[in-house]
Design goal:
- The protein is built from 3 helices and 21 strands.
- Strand 20 and strand 21 (185-189) form a beta hairpin.
- The chain is globular and about 60 Å long.
- The protein has an 8-stranded mixed sheet with strand order 2-5-8-11-14-17-20-21. Strands 1-3-6-9-12-15-18 form a 7-stranded parallel sheet, with no helix packed on it.
- Helix 1 (6-26) packs across helix 3.
- The protein is an alpha/beta fold.
Amino acid sequence: ELSSTPSAKAFVGRALRETGAALKQASGAEIFTRHRPNMIFNGTKPFKTNDTFVAPSSSIIGDVTNWDESSVWYGAVVRADSGHPITIGFSSNVQDRAVINTLPASVDTMQSGFPPICHVGHYVSVGAGSVLVSCTVEDLVDIGEKCTIMEGAIVESNTILEPGTVVPAYARIPSGQKWGGNPAKFVGNLTDQEKADIKDKAEKIHLQASEHLLEFLPIGSNYVHLEELEQKGAGATQG
């Protein structure tokens, strides 16, 4: 009766499709999926290392460089399609549904005199749902959920932005401080423990990303679960 339910049929059908995809990949055939996490744009391919985790539902487009141990999580978009590069530093993470992009190609230089690139330093956590546009985030920064950092803004090292913080264009957040609100306002100075927690958080997210990296297979994993169910079923029948 269980095998006749719609959910069971859907599961078995998907598992069979993924089994076929696994066999094709093993034979050397190239597998095409509906979604491409890494997308070439105007001849420029995103760069990532072997230990960079890019979630299958994320999008990294164009001139993007992902340093070692960085991670881009589910639904996140890192879009460098306007000729201005984006860099994500060592052991930094772009969490679920966050968006990082740059100003349009028509803008060669910002009002600050610098090019409209977007730089995310090392050990930076970009909170879920946050938006970064052509800004500079130095090392060891914890950006809370749903923050916005506009073009030309500079967030210095050892800084915490509370969830929902909006950093206006060309604003500067000094090192060693916590800011929050819309627009961002000074909240207080960071303690030594709070500074240490910034790096610890980034490292913990990297470890979690490593687990996702090991679990993810380009052809899916449902066929593995199906094999396990078949083995359990065979064992029960034999017993």
